[in-house]
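Deliverable D5.2: sample structural annotation.
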Amino acid sequence: MKELVSILDGNTFLVSDRRGDVEPSLDFPTGLFSFDTRFLSTWLLLIDGERLHALSIDDAESHRTRYFLVPGEPTHFLDAKVSVIRSRAISGDLSEELTVLNHSGQEMNFTVRMEMAADFADIFEIKDTQRKKGHNTTAPGENSLRLTYRRDAFHRETMIESSAAAQVDRRGMTFPIRIGPHGEWTTRLTVNVVIYGARGQDVRSLLPFAGSRTTAAIEAEHAEFVARAPKLGCDCAPMAGAYRRSLTDLAALRYESIALGVRLMAAGLPWFMTLFGRDSIFTSLQVLPFVPELIPPTLTMLAGLQGQRVDDFRDEEPGKILHELRYGESAGFEEQPHSPYYGSADSTALFVILLDEYERWTGDVELVKRLEFSVRAALTWIDTYGDLLGTGYVWYQTRSPQVGLENQCWKDSWDAICYSDGRLPSFPRATCELQGYAYDAKLRGARLARLCWNDPVYADRLEREAADLKERFNRDFWLPDKEYYALALDSDGSQVDALTSNIGHLLWSGIVDESRARRVAEHLLGPRLFSGWGVRTLADDQGRYNPIGYHVGTVWPFDNSIIAWGLWKYGLREEAGRICESMFAASRYFFGRLPEAFAGYERDLTDYPVEYPTACSPQAWSAGTPLLLLRVMLGLEPQGEHLIIDPYVPAGMGRVELLDIPGRWGRVDALGRSRDQGPARPD
């Protein structure tokens, strides 16, 4: 049973307890947030001075929920004379309809109290409480309460209004009410958030969607998004549920960019409700065959914010694609480097990969031509600033030791990159998957140069560089005694020998020698890495292994989707199918919504996947995972003006039918059947 309940619309979201209440938390972002600022830190309902108890919660919709409550603590015999329904929705701002019902046969008096406060905490301050440098004001009005925070030109406001008469003080609203026999009382509380930029303009007024949509409009928009996606018909109930949930979560995670006024995909609730280079690109790769319209805004935004100079504080370098963009107070006053921050060594190559994959699916040559300068700059970064030691590999080391990320690969927690005995390597580091991404980016850049830019000389050069990189990589990263690729090279060029899921990304990139692919797959699906629910981030016999360690033993759905894609690319269809089956089986236990990560315990030990305690949910690249797994099982691959369909559905999953797959070919259908049910054929 979930202890916290969340609703969202874009990057505005509310996290409350199961009663619908919000109390300040120092370890998890409870409250109402928008653009990285908490606009409600207290939202607490009392009836006659008593807290309420939840009977039931209706949270089927991502942007709204209802709580059914009674006063006091539950007992074996419940005979409540009064109950409460809290119906709330986010549509740019927050609205909550509060209904008190009198179940007795006589008139009754109640005192309804809503405690209200806003600390205007930056998302970065939740785990690191600091004394605010601005000042707060509270202004009670007629049935309204205005909460304001100012620090120089940084200005945020929370405006709360009630549709019913209220006694308003600086800490909330009180409603002395009288309800007739079997009657009810209702008020609507509206919470408007106001965001002013550095020059004092009302940023929210510049956004075409913010604060102007009704709940009905949101539902219609989400329904339209889902309707545009291919239609899935299948015999596997977990697959159907995961697909449906993924589409609704992806619809909800879209938000309006302040910078360009376009719809982008937030990375994940609650910590990452903003644009991330790596996350946004991987999510785009996952969803491309299903909702390709999401891709151009992401590519355009990343290109527009591409690094232009050397800025140590932000880890910025010319040609580098950003890691993270934030809008909060700490970024605005450069207490954090996230305006934007460029501490990601992989997003630059991934940017090139995504643009090429997008063109292969859609035939959108015009976008490739518009982004030619950005792609060339990205490929140049790989060979210059990316190659810190001049060895032909991509390395990373933060330029900003005080605030920068130590690890700038996707496993970016401090202890994620380690030797097999648990020791940590020196900096700079060159993780294996970075080299795979660089290899793939060069080949894809060559294809774009030859096809779209009429530059065969540049294309030939990139292909030669890619071939040389593959040869050197297979010499320098291979561990002959262990028969897998090293996780990384340390600053001395020595191999960091931990066995990790990163080797699956190497298959996806194509940098693995054909003769070694099956051995790599055997490690990925072997007992040290494969839990039965998926591939662990770190093998269970390694020094730092922890089944509930963020990057040192948990199972990440996104990671597994890329690994399955990589196995498929090398023709290892059965192995890819095992990962697909395990992910869809796990999704059942999360009500179809795969979380950011879950524990790496053996499948036969727990009988169900154990939730990671602070996992983001929904998270964009976890929501994208079922979509990419469908692509893998159906063997979907663009080839010229056609879509190749070569299904391999794991045993027991039955029929899988995907209709109206969009692309440069128009729309086509794909049908597959699991091997135990015979070959695919039309019904």
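Annotation notes: The chain is about 30% helix and 25% strand. Confidence is low (pLDDT under 50) at residues 197-211, 679-683.
The annotation will be released with the project's public dataset once the embargo ends.
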